[in-house]
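Reader question, answered in our methods column.
A reader sent in the components of a multi-part assembly and asked whether the whole thing could be modeled at once rather than chain by chain. We filled in our standard form and ran it. Here is what they sent:
COMPLEX SIZE: three components
ENTRIES:
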Amino acid sequence: MQTTDTATGSRSERGRQAFTEVMTFDPPPGPAAPDSLLDYVFAEVWTRPVLSRRDRRFVTLACVADSDAEQLLIDHVYAALNSGDLSIVEMRETVLHFAVYAGWPKASRFNIVVDQQWDRIHRERGLPVPAPEPLLPLVTPSDPEERLVRGTQSFKDVNCMPFAPDRNNPYQGAGILNFVFGEMWLRPGLSMKARRLITVACVGFQDAPLPILSHVYAALKSRDVSFEEMDELALQFGAYCGLPKGTYLSQVIREQKGRVVHEWRVEAEQEQS
Amino acid sequence: MQTTDTATGSRSERGRQAFTEVMTFDPPPGPAAPDSLLDYVFAEVWTRPVLSRRDRRFVTLACVADSDAEQLLIDHVYAALNSGDLSIVEMRETVLHFAVYAGWPKASRFNIVVDQQWDRIHRERGLPVPAPEPLLPLVTPSDPEERLVRGTQSFKDVNCMPFAPDRNNPYQGAGILNFVFGEMWLRPGLSMKARRLITVACVGFQDAPLPILSHVYAALKSRDVSFEEMDELALQFGAYCGLPKGTYLSQVIREQKGRVVHEWRVEAEQEQS
Amino acid sequence: MQTTDTATGSRSERGRQAFTEVMTFDPPPGPAAPDSLLDYVFAEVWTRPVLSRRDRRFVTLACVADSDAEQLLIDHVYAALNSGDLSIVEMRETVLHFAVYAGWPKASRFNIVVDQQWDRIHRERGLPVPAPEPLLPLVTPSDPEERLVRGTQSFKDVNCMPFAPDRNNPYQGAGILNFVFGEMWLRPGLSMKARRLITVACVGFQDAPLPILSHVYAALKSRDVSFEEMDELALQFGAYCGLPKGTYLSQVIREQKGRVVHEWRVEAEQEQS
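And here is the structure of the entire assembly that came back:
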């Protein structure tokens, strides 16, 4: 009993300390019931190894931007930029990537919050806000046919698949091949690993079974996210999106690990023979 | 008592009859508790005037595609196509529009369901599935600068706003101006009114306050959706997305009606003077 | 260090034991990272005092039905019925109440799962499935005018408000007054407290600011849910819907507690004078 109390006490302390480190400001005072959850998440999730604090931010930002809890979104955007874990370029690409995978309306609020917190950080430091990077020129081709060809290749590369969807379908052609894979995934400014973390979090809360499966698979198969990192992603995601979605994601991860291990074994055997 | 039985009985009958008309197949048998809601939705929501059954389908398809209840999505896609209320071109554009406003992962499932139900309807009728319309040529310009100029104008037109966001921000430039307004909203195949109905439903369940406000405003201000139609949209939306989001949307509608009436009055006065 | 290790070790044991008690079956084997979250939720959330296991089920069922993790929904419906914590009548009313507050499509799946698990439990016990309760007669009036009058009074009672919305608006009249408050909330078979728990969970994940505020307020003001129970509700909700929504709900609870305490003080002073 005593042991448990002490452990819980120390967890609360560890939780508050981890909160300050992650959030770059002190936790709010006052004992409300969800403090138990808050302590757990900061003391025992954010502080875990394998996935860095910076990597955990991509997962968390996606979950918080989806959840409509505006104050938490403000806090996490501020913390990610104020800590220096994310550059403003990375943050802005995160917003665009999130828009595609979680819907433009929620991304619209996310974008506004980024602008406000970027201003606030410069105000707090007495610095002028630097001018944004110019949008043009894009790195992707302009010709519609060339865009589709490039988008088709990018679709195969990102999804680790030998085929791509038929272009003569507005969702697939005008949307997926032309814009999502023909432009968005190819933009510089955000690493492939970061895009994977955001994407898996977004398909996780969007719940459509096939995209969860295919993006977990591709993140593992591409080796952009290791098996151990993916498990940590699931825990971070579960804390911010809730146990049911975390459990489902975790189950898909287990299955896709098996599939990837099997494929790697077959590929190794083929190389040897 | 007698009265109750008759009136309720008749609602249940009307509900089942309306179900068959809307869904193009008979309702499942059996008295479960939610039958009360099912009867209500079909007898007293779908059958209401002002917003046509076809118009109600756009709202309902968006809500059902968001809700992850796959069987209902299958049923409503089938019903919309089987009844002839929506053409396959309109349905495919609905999927793309939904993808932008509700997220690509959910739209991915929607897209698969459309393909399957389109096949099923042709199988049931003993007809071959016609070839899809070719994606190219697009009606929008290829040059990035021209696309941004066109997207900026389209943003102002669709949102009934005199200004557009700065392009030098990936979400705004590469996303909103280049693709969402520079291409997606400009595609043929779906009427402006249908796009409004889908958009308002999507911003309604996405919950970000500003997009709800701006899309309700623009739908009314543009006169693409009348005040009475918007009220019916809120009821149809509330039945399919739940009371809390319906209540919030309804409140925004009330406020934006006031704003639009005021602006129309000012504009009329300016024209007279 | 030693202490922490022991406490964590025992938490995992306590978590697995609580899982078995709550779920009526053993937890799945295997050490995945989200096990940490699973252990925490079962060892330190479900086992807490103030809110009974039965009460926690209403909150959890709503969250799980919303989350689209179908296996978890199956498990929790099974557990709630198999443990005897909820009767089948209560469960079916929960589905109807959920349908109104979370949307018909998700409730449709919930309803199917309830039927299947009810069948399964009877199959496992070698018992026939009893016939369902007949829907008719309803306890509410049939005459539309009487229904609106009754719905208006019920709206005021449930929401602890002195006024009700205008009936001449489809969403408010045909939706809110006629059906939701004129019929659904008045149905027997589910206690007011259970309806409050489900409603607060649903408005919590639906995120629309006004309904969260008004239902938290009414649950506290009516004394159907005590202050301490509401805090526990927020924790249970946070575990199943994620930290951001839990934090937001928690914040609204804090504000509404203040408002209710203030109103009770004013009312007590008015009675004394």
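What stands out: Chain B touches chain C through 50 residues (CB under 8 Å). Confidence is low (pLDDT under 50) at residues 1-7 of chain B.
Send us your own complexes using the same form.
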